[in-house]
Amino acid sequence: MDKARIVRVCDLFMESFKEGQYLNAFELFRKNTILSAGAIDTLQATVEGQIKNYFPSYGNMRSYTFLVEKKIKDFLFRRIYILHFDYYFLKFEFTAYKTANGWKLTGVNYNGEITDLLTD
């Protein structure tokens, strides 16, 4: 799988997530990652719980913004996005690694920590 396809997968994940299509987002991730089915199921269950318990206080999901891609040479990259809500935001980080069989996602992380992204 080429890098452009993985980049598209990240964009489509964010679009699906923004539209409230969480199952579609995780199915797309599942097809493009090295993580085990069990690990993805656990992540998905955690996200679904947080969607029910925390997301309502954030307001509606409005949009997402791609911020930056950081890389190490030609074998590893991380794409960082911000998901915008009415009253809050979440940072999403997708990490991909170039395997012998092409690029694969090795993880997705989301949180509200943006200190590393702030500039003067």
CATH fold title: Nuclear Transport Factor 2, Chain: A
What's the end-to-end separation, in Å?
Answer: 38 Å
Q: Give the % helix.
A: 25-40%
Unreliable runs, pLDDT <50, ≥5 residues?
none
Compute the CA-based radius of gyration. 14 Å
Strands in their spatial order, largest beta sheet: 1-2-3-4
Could you spell the SSE succession in H and E letters?
A: HHHHEEEE
Number of helices: 4
Helix- and strand-based class? alpha+beta
Net shape: globular
Number of strands: 4
CATH class group: Alpha Beta
Looking at this protein, list some descriptive labels.
38% helix, 120 residues, alpha+beta, Nuclear Transport Factor 2, Chain: A, 4 helices, four-stranded antiparallel beta sheet, single chain
